[in-house]
TrEMBL record:
The keyword Transmembrane applies. InterPro entries: PDZ_sf (IPR036034), Pept_M50_Zn (IPR004387), Peptidase_M50 (IPR008915). Residues 7-328 form the Peptidase M50 domain. It is a multi-pass membrane protein. It comes from the Bacteria. Pfam families: Peptidase_M50. It is found in: Membrane. This is Peptidase M50 domain-containing protein. GO terms for cellular component: membrane.
């Protein structure tokens, strides 16, 4: 239940934050916002406030802001001052990019709070080698080794107890486990005595200004890594390397990850929120139809070419793009469920 509540809160922050970026910039430029929707139809609830209808919809994985004159096939606006169609190009770009910018800000805020609060030194399992003592004993990525604060001390302990059965106290998704295993005396080349990779955790507590600076810097670095990963993913799929798709995680995988992080504490959940928000910021600027980046690409094309694309072609492109994204989400969800079974 706790994980479900956290997932709902995260969705609300990420979706409302993103759409609020579009909403507030449209309002600042004097546009009429016809609807602010959380989730996708069918509609569950609506409330009219001013000229905007606020709606709660049945499909929770997303949201939208409907701006007067935004759709390519909209009829010519009678009130040009409130229509997206007649907005200058640079203002259109600001409205489109504002959603991803808000996700970036959410990411910076979340990570800055982590720096501000600090994280106690801790040690985690990054992964276990196949048929290693760690894998056979049941150790898994994300497990926290309770009695050790850093990899150096843990490695020294393992080296001192080769060939002896040892007990490890593990924290997994809020549950304390006792794992018994025997470190190998002569492990295979490239593996340690128990066959795990280790991750040192912990962030020193900082003052507000240092935390904001480091949070911003870390967010920029994370965005760079995300774009690099996305480029590698697209390149790999382009050359037919479909195995790389196995690393993609969807809603079910994220839910499972939240369950694990929830057992570690609020700070770790903030880290996850920041990472997901930065991923959304990066994903939304990709020039793919139905995403903000696709709409931005069409606007830039029209400006460079001096002419407008066929409205029906643009709408069809966004519709096809949306269907492909839904199918991709379903495929990744099925993969995540199969991994859990």
């Amino acid at each position: 239940m706790f994980t479900i509540i956290i997932a709902i809160i995260f969705l609300a922050i990420l979706i409302i934050g993103h759409e609020f970026g579009h909403f507030i910039t449209a309002k600042l430029f004097g546009l009429r916002v016809e609807e602010f929707g959380f989730g996708f139809p069918p509609r569950i609830f609506k409330k009219q406030w001013g000229e905007t209808t606020y709606t709660l919809n049945a499909i929770p994985f997303g949201g939208f802001v409907k701006i007067y004159g935004e759709t390519a096939t909209d009829s010519v606006a009678t009130d040009k001052s409130k229509s997206f169609q007649y907005l200058s190009v640079w203002k259109k770009i600001v409205v489109i990019v504002a959603g991803a910018f808000m996700n970036f800000i959410i990411g910076v805020v979340a990570i800055s709070i982590v720096f501000m609060v600090g994280v106690a030194p801790s040690l985690f399992i990054g992964g276990a080698s196949v048929n290693s003592p760690a894998q056979i004993a049941g150790l898994a990525a994300g497990d926290k080794i309770v009695d050790f604060k850093n990899a150096k001390d843990f490695s020294s302990f393992i080296e001192a107890h080769k060939g002896e059965e040892i007990n490890l106290n593990i924290l997994r998704a809020g549950e304390n486990l006792n794992i018994k295993l025997t470190p190998r005396v002569n492990p295979p080349a490239g593996e340690g005595p128990i066959g795990v990779s280790l991750i040192d955790g912990g962030i020193p507590k900082e003052n507000v200004f240092s935390a904001i600076y480091d949070g911003f810097k870390a967010s920029i670095n994370i965005l760079g890594l995300i774009f690099g990963t996305l480029f590698s993913l697209v390149a790999s799929l382009f050359i037919g390397n479909w195995q790389v798709a196995s690393s993609v995680t969807g809603p079910v995988g994220i839910f499972n990850f939240l369950d694990t992080a929830g057992g570690l504490g609020l700070v770790y959940l903030l880290q996850i929120l920041g990472l997901i928000s930065l991923n959304l910021a990066a994903m939304n600027v990709i020039p793919f139809p139905a995403l903000d980046g696709g709409r931005l690409a069409f606007i830039v094309y029209e400006k460079v070419s001096g002419g407008r694309l066929n409205p029906h072609f643009e709408n069809a492109a966004h519709t096809i793009g949306f269907v492909l994204l839904i199918l991709l989400m379903l495929a990744v969800t099925v993969k995540d469920i199969m991994n859990l079974v």
